[in-house]
Design a protein that fits this description.
508 residues, seven-stranded antiparallel β-sheet, elongated
Length: 508
């Protein structure tokens, strides 16, 4: 028994010695895949491209240079917004205190661009809208923070100007947005989602985008579109070209999620500069007025009805009596082809060009009228509060259905009309015309936004006195022809004059 025990002990010792030797060898890197040699190992391989493309390197170097130059002039704007609801009023219990939960102030963040060394900063109106007194703070690129004063703001253009008490600040260079072209490189610089001093790159995707960021009926809706990533917090920041010049102030995004989906919009810097100069000098905007109402754009049907060789220019729907346009001889039905030599094909393009001027400036309009080209010089005046208050939007569907008496079917247009009574003429301020009693949902007139209760006062510059006049004016028209209707559409308690081009449909 003792011999077996000694033999077993010797066997265990031998096994231990062998295992220990293997363990030592493994730690010395011998015969093991997880050993350590004590030597550094070279990771990765050589660069796949030994010499970079010079154009790509130049672009990269330009982006780096632009970022270094412009980022210090872009600030973070932090806003404390006053709560809109303080709790219900209890008028019958003035001596009691009710512990209703109070709504806390909200916090907002945006961006801004320094435009003077002594602290004037451009941002968006919607960034600072509703800010508490002393509720705007600006944080610079170098981490310094300042209380900011709101110098002025303009909801119509979504521009605001702040002022901080500082000197010798880095200043952004402002470019010329009129020379911007689709396809050119741009950088967006700002503070998206609280990520300060962020730079994203893209191109100008489109120009003259009609994006409604303001409920103001006089709002300027002409934006630079870019695919450079813009997110909440970028508002008020800079859109910069490859020269490091600011060509726009980032303002809005088109999104279904609330975050970037590839479509961002910036206010052209020429407009921003004009607004900011007025806010700094006067504390308000001196907005120039032309005095016309315009059709958004001209399409093929409009061109056919107007006698234009191709769809171009902007149709004057009506001229405000006593306005600069009226005094210069601009007429309803004119087609504005250019402003100061710049071709225009959309109403918002004219709106932007006029907004870049000051009251008292003279603009030259090239006009197509009755098959001829003419020119009109218009001296702009300042829009008054009365002008702003009188603006509205027509729906065309505010009135009750007219009684169905003495109606005439105009199959070529897809409508029925009836004579105007004296009360209707008096209300509309006219002495002729016919009332649109009904509009066929699938007819030519419906496709061109002619509404029930509209009043047709003319066809192709001829007065319409009665339903019979309208029938006679359309007798010579065949399917595919187009006519230009002069129409009055009710707008609140008044009527707005406009033109509606309609292509003749099949009356069979």
């Amino acid at each position: 028994m003792r011999k077996r025990t000694l033999l077993g002990a010797a066997l265990l010792v031998a096994v231990g010695v062998v295992f220990g030797a293997l363990l030592v060898m493994s730690f010395n890197g011998v015969g093991s895949s997880f050993g350590f040699s004590g030597e550094k190992v070279a990771l990765g391989g050589p660069a796949p491209i030994s010499k970079g493309d010079m154009n790509l390197l130049a672009t990269q170097d330009a982006f780096i240079a632009i970022s270094k130059a412009v980022t210090p002039a872009v600030v973070s704007v932090n806003v404390t917004i006053a709560p809109k609801v303080k709790g219900p009023d209890i008028p019958f219990f003035p001596n009691f205190h009710f512990n209703f939960p109070q709504q806390q102030p909200e916090k907002g963040i945006g961006s801004g661009v320094i435009v003077t060394k002594d602290g004037y900063i451009i941002t968006n109106n919607h960034v600072v809208d509703g800010a508490e007194k002393n509720g705007i703070r600006v944080k610079l690129y170098d981490k310094r923070e300042y209380q900011a004063k709101l110098v002025g703001r303009d909801p119509t253009t979504d521009v605001a100007v702040l002022k901080i008490d500082a000197t010798n600040l880095p200043v952004a260079s402002l470019g010329n947005s009129d020379s911007v072209e689709v396809g050119q490189w741009v950088l967006a610089i700002g503070n998206p989602l609280g990520l300060t001093s962020t730079v994203t790159a893209g191109i100008v995707s489109a120009l003259g985008r009609d994006v409604d960021v303001s409920a103001d009926s006089w709002g300027i809706r002409n934006f630079i579109q870019t695919d450079a990533a813009i997110n909440p917090g970028n508002s008020g920041g800079a859109l910069v070209d490859i020269y490091g010049q600011v060509i726009g102030i980032n303002t809005a995004i088109a999104t279904q999620t609330g975050y970037n989906q590839g479509y961002g919009f910036a206010i052209p810097i020429n407009l921003v500069k004009n607004m900011a100069e007025d806010l700094i000098a006067y504390g308000k905007i001196r907005r120039p007025m032309l005095g016309v109402q315009l059709k958004p754009s001209i399409d093929e049907t409009d061109a056919k009805a107007l006698g234009l060789p191709k769809p171009e220019g902007v149709l004057v729907q009506s001229v405000i009596p006593g306005s600069p346009a009226d005094k210069a001889g601009v007429l309803a039905g004119d087609v504005i082809l250019s402003v100061d030599g710049t071709a225009v094909n959309a109403a918002n393009a004219i709106q932007l060009l006029i907004a870049e001027h000051k009251p008292g400036d003279v603009v030259t309009l090239k006009i197509f009228r009755g098959g001829k080209m003419i020119s009109k010089d218009v001296r702009l005046t300042e829009i008054t509060q009365q002008d702003l208050a009188s603006a509205g939007q027509a729906t065309g569907e505010e009135n009750e259905q007219p009684e169905k008496n003495d109606q005439t079917n105009i199959a070529k247009l897809g409508i029925t009309v009836q004579p105007l009574d004296q009360d209707m003429k008096r209300e509309a301020g006219i002495n002729h015309g016919v009332l649109v009693a009904s509009v066929s949902p699938n007819g030519p007139a419906a496709e061109r936004s002619l509404f029930r209760n509209d009043i047709i006062t003319g066809v192709d510059n001829r007065k319409v006195e009665s339903p019979e006049d309208l029938v006679n004016d359309l007798k010579s028209k065949k399917t595919g022809d187009a006519v230009m209707l002069r129409v009055m559409t009710k707008q609140g308690n008044s009527y707005m004059s406009r033109f509606v081009a309609v292509e003749i449909g099949d009356s069979n």
